[in-house]
Specification:
Radius of gyration: 18 Å
Order of helices and strands: EEHEHEHHH
Oligomer: single chain
Distance between the termini: 24 Å
Helix content: 40-55%
């Protein structure tokens, strides 16, 4: 796993598909103003972890060592993303999506405020449980 700048110090949000599906149904049925047609935005996450916490959880779940490596500064990342965009163009954006996502995350744009608490409906899946289920280990 790789990161830029101080990206190892800041937790990033993540959500399992099952949690997102269950909570979306809950929001559609009971979200404030949804039934009245007012819509809105509802932030949800199963958890948030640093890259080092993710790597450790993955290692524990799979037994596979994960090398966590700093790739450079945020300026280096922005420069690399600009280079990849020039080289690959818009049609091949998927090839530089990890770098774009890392830059967005490191700039704090994925910081979730006002996360809806769904504990009463469906408890969030823990990272450890998700990895155990994903890799079918008990």
């Amino acid at each position: 796993m790789r990161y830029w700048g101080d990206g190892n110090k800041y937790p990033q949000p993540w959500t399992t598909q099952n949690d997102a599906a269950a909570w979306t149904i809950e929001v559609l049925l009971n979200g404030d103003g949804v039934q009245e047609g007012k819509g809105g935005f509802f932030s949800m996450r199963s958890g948030e972890h640093t890259i080092e916490e993710l790597a450790l959880a993955y290692e524990e779940a799979t037994g596979t060592y994960v090398d966590v490596r700093r790739q450079g500064s945020l300026v280096d990342l922005a420069d690399e993303l600009a280079r990849l965009r020039r080289e690959k163009g818009r049609l091949r954006y998927f090839e530089y999506l990890p770098e774009a996502a890392a830059l967005i995350g490191n700039r704090g744009r994925w910081k979730m405020e006002d996360v809806v608490d769904f504990q009463d409906m469906r408890k969030p899946t823990s990272l450890e449980q998700y990895l155990r289920d994903r890799f079918q280990q008990s």
